[in-house]
Amino acid sequence: VPLREGIVSAIPADLQIADARATPAVNLNEVLIPTETVITRGKELYTASCASCHGENGKGDGIAGAALNPPPKNFTVKDGWKNGAKISGIYKSLYEGIPGTGMAMYDNFPPEDLFAISHYVRTFVPDAPADTQDDIDELDFNYKLTEGIELPPQIPVLSAKELIAKETLYDAKRLFNILS
If we measure between CA atoms, which residue out of 130, 39, 131, 122 comes closest to residue 76? Predict the structure, then answer.
């Protein structure tokens, strides 16, 4: 795809070193209410992380989205949602990403931020459907929201490859010495 003015071409960054961390439990009764504060936080996060592809007004017309195939979701169109336009479906799309599209995973965001983005995205949706209690229960079950979870540490991919290469070289040298 030819570069267009305003589109930045960059090499994807490697994973950052991250210590093990815990995601604290979430009070679903609080995060499911779209207060003005939550919507404002969601707009800030959306502008920083989503608008480049989905556009400032959620129409899928962001400058970075111009190069994506399939194009980013137009939130103002009621049909065609991969996981649905309910809070639970948007949360799932944010947390897991959508395979086969440019929609990345945002599993590194705290649950409160994912809910805030979800509430803000729904401001674009005409007649947004409501979640049932079963939807909320499934969301909680799948993502352990009311329990919290322990996340393992991560190392950059390049560092992991180097460690594996060193181990393999060490094993190869040992095998050579044994056979010699």
Answer: 122
Show the beta-strand stretches assigned E in the chain: 21-23, 149-151
Spatial contact of 89 and 81, defined as CB atoms under 8 Å apart: yes
pLDDT tens for residues 44-100? Answer: 999 999 999 999 999 999 999 998 999 999 999 999 999 999 999 999 999 999 998
Sign of the CA dihedral 142, 145, 146, 147?
Answer: positive
pLDDT digits (tens, 9 = 90+) for 117-153: 999 999 999 999 999 999 999 999 999 999 998 878 8
Q: How far apart are CA 36 and CA 100, in angstroms?
A: 34
| 117 vs 48: CA distance, rounded Å | 11
pTM score: 0.75
